[in-house]
Write a structure and sequence with these properties.
Largest sheet: none
Number of strands: 0
Oligomer: single chain
Distance between the termini: 81 Å
Structural class: mainly alpha
Number of helices: 4
Length: 97
């Protein structure tokens, strides 16, 4: 990701030692390490979510291509969102008895 060599790390450590001081430098390094770990975890989580969504979209397109673009309405003959009342009523059933 970053091309940081030994000389760059040494330079950063010396500058940190001068600016922050030897007493607070270990605590600062731990805090920075913790934040970097959290950021990497968040990026990995976001990357997994994006990859999952892309795979689901590809799968959806493949299924649509294999089925020839058929939808549920085409197979059943009606819209699954339309709720129809039953064609027989209770009064007609009792009169038949």
């Amino acid at each position: 990701m970053f091309d940081i060599g030994a000389t760059e790390l040494l330079l950063v450590a010396i500058i940190g030692l001068v600016v922050v001081g030897p007493e607070r430098l270990p605590k600062l390094a731990r805090t920075i390490g913790l934040w970097v770990k959290r950021a990497r975890g968040q990026m990995a989580s976001i990357q997994r979510d994006i990859n999952r969504e892309l795979e689901l979209e590809d799968l959806k397109q493949q299924l649509q291509a294999q089925s020839g673009g058929l939808k549920l309405e085409d197979l059943t003959g009606n819209n699954p969102l339309d709720i129809e009342k039953p064609s027989t009523s209770i009064s007609s059933e009792t009169s038949k008895k």
